[in-house]
Design brief:
This protein has 216 residues and is mainly alpha-helical. It has one domain. It is built from 10 helices and no strands. InterPro entries: PAP2/HPO (IPR000326), PAP2/HPO_sf (IPR036938).
């Protein structure tokens, strides 16, 4: 029943993402599309070798392979430490939801990348919407923050700053010309919402129990 509800929420979220993407690529392509292109050119005009290097580092924070491998290690580590299946199921559910949404949306909503030189070579030209890197960064760093807040309260102040890393990834992808602003914002919103939904469904009881133990 729980996972049926989660599936329902995911389907609804996917429909919203795809619907928004179709709006961006059709009726809104003239208005928002021009704004997106202007911002892409603004970033391109301000490129420097130093900023190029920083953007490369920022992009790695949302790299798909790094994100998946790190998420696997995170799931195993927390599950072994807590002797519970919940951390692993939590990470897997968040990851599957984010990646499935990305793969389906990018297939159903082809969108050309910004009309500037792209600093990340080898990208599929019409896979601009949504941003996989931003989604991956929220999946990974968001899971780290949520699991730490749930199970390791004393370390909260050390991991909370990690929540801003997806913004670093977002700016890096804009700077590199890999995505439009509306692409990265879409990923930022849908991945964050999905993370919140799964957290509420799978970890709320765990977080409450942890607080009760501390009070006792």
């Amino acid at each position: 029943m729980l996972f049926a509800r989660l599936l329902g929420w995911w389907v609804a979220l996917l429909a919203l993402v795809v619907g928004w993407g179709l709006l961006l690529t059709h009726p809104l392509s003239g208005s928002l599309g021009r704004m997106d292109d202007d911002l892409a050119r603004w970033f391109a005009d301000r490129r420097t070798p130093t900023l190029d290097d920083l953007a490369d580092v920022g992009t790695l924070l949302g790299d798909t392979l790094i994100g998946i491998l790190s998420a696997v290690a995170l799931a195993i580590g927390f599950s072994v430490w807590r002797r519970s299946w919940r951390p692993a199921v939590f990470v897997v559910t968040v990851g599957l939801g984010v990646y499935a949404t990305y793969l389906i949306a990018v297939s159903l909503v082809p969108r050309q990348r910004p009309p500037v030189k792209i600093l990340d070579p080898g990208l599929v030209p019409d896979h601009s919407f949504p941003s996989g890197h931003v989604g991956t960064s929220i999946m990974l760093w968001g899971c780290i923050v949520v699991l730490t807040w749930t199970y390791a309260g004393t370390a909260r102040r050390w991991v909370t700053p990690l929540a801003v890393l997806p913004l670093v990834v977002m700016i890096s992808r804009l700077y590199q010309g890999a995505h439009h602003l509306t692409d990265v914002l879409t990923s930022l919103v849908f991945a964050t919402v999905w993370l919140a939904i799964v957290t509420r469904a799978l970890l709320y009881d765990e977080s409450t129990a942890t607080r009760r133990v501390k009070v006792a």
